[in-house]
Amino acid sequence: MQIDTHSGIPIYRQIMDQIRYQILAEILKPGDPLDSVRELARSLKVNPMTVSKAYAYLEMEGLVERQRGIGLFAAELKPEDKLSRHTQLLSELLEKAAADAALLGISREQFLTLAGKAASKLK
What is the rounded distance in angstroms from the CA atom of residue 48 to the CA atom of residue 102? Predict the structure, then answer.
């Protein structure tokens, strides 16, 4: 996990986004433990309250589950929840890509061509 202090995105949000992606991409599988607040804060060199805030929001989203005295774990998602969250995550990524394309002066048609080429690599 990496934090970009110059991105303008709050650090707790960057932590949330990266853990959310890991869970939805099944890099973190249901039941896998998350680093403790202190471990992650130390490795990222951030305030433990920042990590705690990110974990609290992920818990409210239902992506992680707290087991008292043990720690936090990646939650098991219902198939319909997983599909909905995948769609939402991909929409956010595409919106960012479209915004970046606009900043780079890439036309809508060029963007769609590039997206089509990327999509052709899907199984």
Answer: 37
